[in-house]
Amino acid sequence: MKELRDRSGDIKGAYQKLKEAHQEIKNSYIETIYRLAIAAEYRDMATGAHLMRISDYSTLLGRKLGLPDGDIELLRFGSPMHDIGKIGIPDAILLKPGKLTEEEYNVMKQHTIIGARIFHGSNSPLLKASAMIALSHHEHYDGAGYPNGLKGDKIPLFGRIVCIADVFDALMSERSYKRAFRLERALDILKNEAGKLLDPHLVHIFLKSIKEVESILSAYKTIASFSENKEGTS
Question: How far apart are CA 55 and CA 96, in angstroms?
Answer without folding.
Answer: 27
